[in-house]
Amino acid sequence: MILDTDGMKPIYIQIAEWMESEILHDNFRQDEKVHSQYKLADMYNINPATAAKGLTKLAEEGILYDKRGIGKFVSHAAKSIILDKRKNQTLKKKINDLITEAGHLEMSEEEVVGLVREAWKGEE
Questions:
Q1: What pTM did the predictor assign?
Q2: What's the confidence (pLDDT) of residue 7?
Q3: Contacts of 23 (CB under 8 A, 6+ apart)
């Protein structure tokens, strides 16, 4: 992974998203220990506190769990949490894009909902 240090996305979020991808691609499996904050800091040349913030975010979401004094491990629900999160984010973005485009086309809510219903039913 290449960190975008000039972008708008915080580094700890990029670390968390990278770790999520590693879990989805089975590079880290259930109950497997993940990299420590110090290893991540060394790998990406970042502050260990930044790496720790990314790991803490994943732990707060239930993707990782702590074993006191040993490190963080992949939870049994990690993959389903990540998939649900990504599906939700992807769908919301597409809906927001649709609403924005409909606004540019001066369409009413009813027109957009009607189009969605037709598409859902497979009608043209």
A1: 0.74
A2: 80
A3: 29, 63, 74, 78, 79, 82
